[in-house]
Specification:
Layout lengths: L2 H5 L1 H10 L3 H13 L5 H14 L2 H17 L3 H17 L3 H15 L6 H16 L3 H18 L2 H17 L3 H16 L5 H18 L2 H18 L7 H12 L3 H17 L3 H18 L2 H13 L7 H8 L3 H14 L3 H18 L2 H18 L2 H18 L4 H15 L2 H17 L3 H18 L2 H10 L11 E13 L2 H7 L1 H21 L3 E6 L2 E6 L2 H22 L4 E13 L4 E2 L1 H12 L5 E4 H6 L10 E3 L8 E5 L4
Parallel strand pairs: 4-6
Antiparallel strand pairs: 1-3, 1-4, 2-3, 4-5, 6-8, 7-8
Length: 650
């Protein structure tokens, strides 16, 4: 800890908040709080730091105390603002009675007070409440009033949040285009750096959630990329919780399944840490979807069951899993029950698409026809390209089975739309239907060309079951890669750390060039030492080596190359490296198992410029590596500790 931190811990905490070092700020503020040094304003900072650090109990406690302290100091407007934050905190934890009580407190505190910025925030929260209650007309009206008040007081954060609730209410009442325009306006302010980080997260999360509901995947993808760039500029690892689940869905749609699973699993951990298990079910469902596509049926089953246990309906994923297991009757029953319970048109879309697949497989074309009809009605009402693509492919599936020549036209519309959205898996499946449609009307050669092109796309994605099914349709049955083979590998995780100061020093353009050099250099060194790149998510790599010695040699070469670049060019990123050898399941395109997660956790404990390796892995490596004395560490998600050591490379 620096001398400044020792002399002025509160200043150090504020500096950490400015750097978005949330955990550091939380620890400093909590220590100061234990010494009785925090004012009411400082307690507000403690609450915000705790929120970002995932310490929700501490967050709520700090805000409750800030509320009381402001009241005692004769600052009712500040007290009301803390009460409104507590409305959000309790609402996100599904504690409706507590949220309502704090809202009433805010109203009572501001009653008979001259109009102020706090009154404007209260109005914005009224718009939010009306939206959540489904009173869309009132939400639009009150939201517009809150926007005007935000302009009056010159508060861009308030304006953006009010625009969000006004826009979401417009979408809810059926004015999707107008509502999304307001959400776009709020989000561009957020990702341009005009708002507080916590407000930026709220705006982005509401935008991405609305896009998710409307299947506006192109818009969601554009804003997700913009938000990623904002996070990099701000040295923020991403917005926690449910936002990360929706981001994982967009990444999965783009075909980056390993990165999407990493994002979804991180969201599950964050949501459980935040005391939000109900929302964690969405994260587990997303993991199940990814694993199902990859052909890992056991892992998909486990993820869907976890989602179900947390209260998330696991359909249509679980039903499609049952279909893949050769149980169409069970699949049909699951979807029938789910559709009976879910009435929201947008929530029915994926279940209806799944029902078409299951019904076609079972030869129940009447059920498939009715589901396709409803999908077309929903697509016409809401109008997004993804909805039209889903409806077109569903209709084509039915028409192919009925031998209708119109099937090819419907399949091509779906294929074109999925391609325009940049959804390679969905586009490949639409192309399979297109190939079958051509074959059904006697154009065998054209149909085979489409099927082969679709299979190539599916193979690149790692969609082994679907690629195998296409081979069988072509009369070329092949054995799927062994997805259950147990192997022993040495896993390496790398990650750039503490990049914000360097970005600030050299600028965005130079940073982009430096990251490009980093990626090229590490990939060259992986290859030179026999490592196979498994995944590249954000600033980090996941690499598998045949033996520990090769992994350690690669790690040392990486750190020395970075040090040399720092010496000659004046700067280079700080990279942490974690290494662990373990048995895992080789899926051909990925590795799965407890050992992989253990390696990742070890990597997360390393400091910048450090190579951290498990003690047993170092012992198994040849070469007499210089290393520190082993120490015992706790690994998040594991009950048993690990013994790790730092390998010298200088």
């Amino acid at each position: 800890m620096t001398q400044r931190t020792i002399e002025d811990p509160l200043a150090a905490a504020r500096d950490a908040l400015d750097r978005h070092a949330w955990r550091e700020a939380f620890d400093l503020l909590r220590a100061a709080d234990e010494r009785g040094e925090l004012s009411a304003d400082d307690l507000e900072l403690l609450g915000e730091a705790a929120w970002w650090a995932g310490e929700m109990d501490a967050c709520v406690s700090a805000r409750e105390r800030a509320y009381a302290a402001h009241l005692e100091a004769g600052e009712p407007e500040k007290a009301a603002m803390q009460a409104l934050w507590l409305v959000r905190d309790h609402g996100s934890r599904l504690e409706g009675a507590l949220a309502t009580a704090w809202f009433k407190r805010a109203e009572r505190v501001l009653q008979d007070r001259p109009e102020s910025l706090a009154h404007a925030y209260l109005e914005m929260m009224r718009a939010r409440a009306a939206h959540l209650d489904g009173d869309y007309e009132r939400a639009v009206e009150v939201g517009a009033r809150a926007v005007e008040m935000g302009m009056k007081y010159g508060d861009p954060n308030l304006q953006a949040l009010a625009l969000v609730y006004q826009g979401m209410a417009m979408v809810g009442r059926g004015d999707a285009e107008e509502g999304l325009a307001l959400l776009d306006e709020a989000t561009v302010a957020a990702v341009s750096g005009e708002l507080r980080p916590i407000v930026t997260g709220m705006v982005y999360c509401n935008m991405i959630s609305t896009c998710h509901e409307l299947a506006e995947f192109r818009r969601a993808g554009e804003w997700t990329e913009a938000a990623r760039r904002w996070c990099e500029r701000q040295a923020i690892s991403g917005f926690p919780g449910l936002c990360r689940v929706h981001r994982a869905e967009i990444i999965r749609l783009r075909g980056a399944w390993a990165e999407a699973e990493h994002e979804a699993r991180q969201a599950c951990t964050e949501l459980m840490d935040h005391g939000l298990p109900a929302f964690a079910g969405d994260g587990f469902y997303e993991v199940g979807e990814i694993r199902l596509r990859m052909g890992d049926l056991a892992a998909a089953e486990e993820a869907f069951q976890q989602a179900n246990e947390l209260g998330r309906d696991p359909q249509p994923g679980l039903a499609l899993l049952r279909l893949a297991q050769g149980r169409p009757d069970a699949a049909a029953a699951l979807l029938r029950r789910s559709l009976e319970e879910i009435q929201d048109p947008l929530l029915r879309v994926q279940r209806l698409a799944g029902q078409v697949e299951v019904a076609v497989a079972a030869g129940d074309l009447d059920t498939a026809d009715r589901a396709a009809d409803e999908l077309e009605t929903i697509a016409e009402r809401y109008g997004s390209d993804a909805l039209h693509a889903t409806a077109s492919v569903a209709r084509a599936r039915v028409l192919v089975e009925r031998g209708d020549d119109e099937a090819a036209g419907a399949a091509r519309r779906g294929w074109d739309l999925w391609r325009s959205i940049d959804a390679p898996y969905e586009a490949a499946l639409a192309r399979v239907t297109l190939g079958l449609a051509y074959q059904a009307r006697g154009e065998q050669e054209t149909g085979e060309l489409e099927l082969r092109a679709a299979r190539s796309s599916l193979e690149k994605l790692g969609a082994v079951p679907d690629a195998t099914r296409v081979s069988e349709l072509l009369g070329e049955p092949v054995a799927a890669p062994d997805g259950g083979r147990r192997v022993t590998r040495t896993f390496m995780f790398t990650d750039i750390v503490r990049s914000s100061n360097l970005v600030e020093a050299i600028g965005d353009d130079a940073w982009e060039d430096l990251v490009g050099w980093h990626d090229r250099t590490l990939r060259r060194l992986f290859e030179e030492h026999g490592g196979g790149e498994v995944d590249h998510a954000g600033d980090g790599f996941f690499v598998a080596f045949e033996d520990p010695g090769a992994a350690l040699a690669a790690a040392v070469a990486i750190q020395r190359s970075l040090a040399e670049h720092r010496r000659t060019a004046g700067f280079a990123p700080q990279v942490r490296i974690g290494i662990h050898a373990a048995e895992a399941t080789d899926l051909g395109h990925d590795y799965r198992g407890k050992g992989v997660h253990r390696a990742a956790r070890i990597g997360a404990l390393a400091e910048g410029g450090e190579i951290l390796v498990s003690e047993e892995t170092l012992a198994a490596a040849d070469g007499g590596w210089e290393a520190s004395e082993a120490r015992e560490v706790a690994l998040k998600g594991f009950t048993e500790p690990a013994r790790v050591t730092s390998v010298g490379w200088r």
